[in-house]
Amino acid sequence: MRIAVGSDERTKLTDFVVEELKRRGHTVKLCGALARDAAPWPDVALEVAESILKKEVDEGILFCWTGTGVTIAANKVPGIRAALCSSGEIAKGARKWNKPNILVMSLSETTEEKAKEILDAWFSTEFDPSEEENIKRLEEIEKRFFKKRIKLS
User: Is 54 helix (H, G, I), strand (E, B) or coil?
Assistant: First the structure.
């Protein structure tokens, strides 16, 4: 799988997750502070979200201090469903019921051990097709509030 990984700062945790993804056989695209010196968290979220929409990657992983900022920013982009996950159980539930395309973790609260648990759950859990109607409802909300759709080339 091709995964964009972005953060507003590079830390031991972000380095661990990038190496863990590569160890699992994923192709990683670095974004934000992982690819250059500095990047504001809204810009990092947009960069990862656009990488998904442009089909440069299949999914994304985002980090910021709380995880909340990049989650909010990414979810402003139509077609993006970013899930802030603090445990394997939360990641499992998000994957099963919400069909997210971006995993978000907090730099301040996530240990390497917890990140591995979250990644294990994220990659081993499939979306439950019985939830497709709820995903369609989300798409209708997007259509209602994002009337001007931007097409990426």
Answer: coil
Q: How many domains does the chain have?
A: 1
Q: How confident is the model at residue 56, as a pLDDT?
A: 98
Q: Is 31 marked active-site?
A: no
In a domain, 150, yes or no: no
Place of tokens 């899930």: 83
Q: Is the pLDDT of residue 112 over 70?
A: yes
Q: Three-state DSSP class for 118?
A: helix
pLDDT bin (cut points 50, 70, 90) of residue 144 is confident
Predicted pLDDT of residue 128: 97
Residue 35, domain extent = 2-145
Q: Which of 48, 64, 73, 94 is catalytic?
A: 64
Residue 135: closest CA among 84, 87, 89, 95: 95
41's tokens: 């968290």
